[in-house]
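Q: How would the structure tokens look for this protein?
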Amino acid sequence: MPNITFRGHSYSLNPAESVLDALTRHGAAVPSSCRSGVCQTCTMKAVSGTPPAAAQEGLRDSLKEQGYFLACMCQPREDLEVALPDEIIAPLIDAQVIEKTELCPDVLRLRLEPAQSLLFRGGQFINLHHPDGAVRSYSIASASLGEDYLELHVRIIPGGKVSGWLAAKINTGDSVQIDGPHGDCYYQAPNLDQPLVLIGTGTGLAPLFAVVKDAFLQGHRGPIHLFHGGNKASDLYLVRQFQAYSEQHENFSYTACVMDESADSACYSIGSPAHVALAAHKDLKGYRIYLCGNPDMVRATKRKAFLAGASLSEIHTDPFEAATPAAPVIPATDQHADMPVMRTDKPANSFSPNIA
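A: Here is the predicted structure in token form.
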């Protein structure tokens, strides 16, 4: 029988056993959901060897050519060396800006079309490279299925090197360089009836937007509760989009939260989204939780969600951590340069991502 090599270890397959089942049987962690070739959560890449055609049904031709396959449907006839897509060290990719719009006064929506087909899961992040070498990361707000472009929500930081460059210099039709995708904060639901609670601040909404869309596309039946917050009403965006989702999907609810106590309480919940969400959901046993945005909020809410009954394995986080600036010290003339911010969930082989 063929052998599968994954992360430097070789595993044997039993007769009529799939790559997913074999790796799972041997204790290797591979993302999966439907196990029937529909959701594409278990997509892997053959680093060496050729996967059978039946394991590539439903994938785009360009991905088939690159050796991608569905692990749950793959019963190989030869030895394979395989890897997860976000564990592959990928070269820089050119991507064309196909849309640039304002979502709110300090947040831009960029849609990028990569020069080559890119396998991603909505909620992961890509690294975007400035011409002088600066690197910043942005979450992917696109759905994993049906949206071939990469949607990014870029907060414009005063004095920010990359965000300022994107806002002032980059226009529709221009090209930028990216790498990725990276990260594992994306829609996963072995149980389509499982209740979901999503909590985000600022542009932490981007990965949550993707999670919501993917949940709809995969037919999620359980309740989906989204809580998004900012200091004031003008910090929020996509409000009408989520209100429309609430009308279109009986299992979806959206709560807009602001810290401004003078805001209209008929339109907004007053307080942080974490406080409002936990007040509404005191028992989180059996829930899947997504926490994105402010790192203090993410850390504190993860602990509170666990104490409220959520399993740690069911809590997915995407915090932005401020990195310590490297020597030399920033000169006085650059006092307003943006501080690098990195995600703590980046894979070992990725760049140190940033958001400014």
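The helical segments are 19-25, 61-65, 161-168, 205-217, 239-248, 273-280, 295-307.

The domain at 196-321 is CATH 3.40.50.80 (Rossmann fold).

Upvote if useful.
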